[in-house]
Amino acid sequence: MSDEKKMVVEVMYKAHYCLICQYMDEAVLAVMPRYEKYVEYRRVDILHGTGKKRFLELSVSLFGEEGVYKKLRIAPIPSLFINGELFFDAIPPGPMLEEAIEEVIDQHNMRESYAQTKSSG
């Protein structure tokens, strides 16, 4: 399955000294091997460059520009987004995370798309 067709799982990550950010990252990485053909994982380093920009984009998607730039509302840290949608604002237990990933796989018929890509390639 090409990367364009994979779901994008993003974790908002502040820094290595942020323990809850590390735990969220570890929780996601623990289930990723089972879904590597369906998921592109991105750790969004909110303090630097493109990560900071992406964090603001996701914050605006949650609260609107006024909410972010005038009322100073931002996406939770840590948090987990799937395809730009907030799924978890706290560290999810493995089974809950797997259930969310499975839900997106089913909603987008990703298993069928993967099977077709594999059989035609």
Kindly give the count of domains. 1
Low-confidence blocks of residues? none
- Helices and strands, in N-to-C order? EHEHEEHH
Strand content: 15-25%
Percent helix range: 40-55%
**CATH architecture annotation name:** 3-Layer(aba) Sandwich
Radius of gyration: 15 Å
Q: Major sheet: size, sense and barrel closure?
A: 4 strands, mixed
Which strand order spans the largest sheet, edge to edge or round the barrel?
2-1-3-4
CATH hierarchy, class: Alpha Beta
The CATH homologous superfamily name equals Glutaredoxin
**pLDDT averaged over residues:** 91
Q: What's the shape?
A: globular
Q: Quaternary arrangement of the chains shown?
A: single chain
CATH fold-level assignment: Glutaredoxin
Straight-line distance between termini: 10 Å
Describe the protein's topology:
Layout lengths: L6 E7 L5 H13 L7 E7 L3 H21 L10 E3 L2 E4 L5 H14 L2 H11 L1
Parallel strand pairs: 1-2
Antiparallel strand pairs: 1-3, 3-4
